[in-house]
Design a protein that fits this description.
This protein is mainly beta. Helices cover about 15% and strands about 40% of the residues.
Amino acid sequence: MTLTRRTLTVALATTPLASPALAQGALSAADQALVSRAIAYLEGLNEARGRFVQTDARGRSVTGQLFMKRPGKARFAYDPPSGLLVVSDGGVVSVQDKRLKTFDAYPLSATPLSLFLAKTIRLDRGVRVTRVQRMRDGFAITARDGNKQTAGEITLSFTEAPLTLAGWTVTDAQGRPTRVQIQGLARASGLDKSLFVLKDPRPKNPGRGKV
């Protein structure tokens, strides 16, 4: 299956929901303990690699390979026939579509990636945790943008034994979810710096000639 640019944008950027978000309430001590565990785990995840599956609201899925190097860096290399490559260099998330010959860039701070790639992860500054959900094999933390006061939500999912980031889900303005599921995430070391560099391959507009 091919991945549309709209689906990719939903997966990268937190978008407002059409309906109000859950009301913010004080977390219980047990919920706060899970949030603290998640933060400690993410801040200790310096380098990692694994596979991912991205699924849109229609059930269409694409796969690829993921590399992470905190703080700020990540690479999502989509498997053929997709021509997509997504790279965060620590400040900017670049999206290259080789098939369409397009190249777009977004501030890292405007994407869900910043929630777990930041040097210091603070889910109590600029982000409001609205729900902590326990599941049979782990737990999920749902948060919204606390600064812009939008209703957009993202849910980070974790598995237990051992504690591992399992993925995230972002919802668009029509309430349609896009899910990124991480498979086999494992700690790594010495990842090549070139993995996190992506330059615009398109030729620049030629000048009007030399003076």
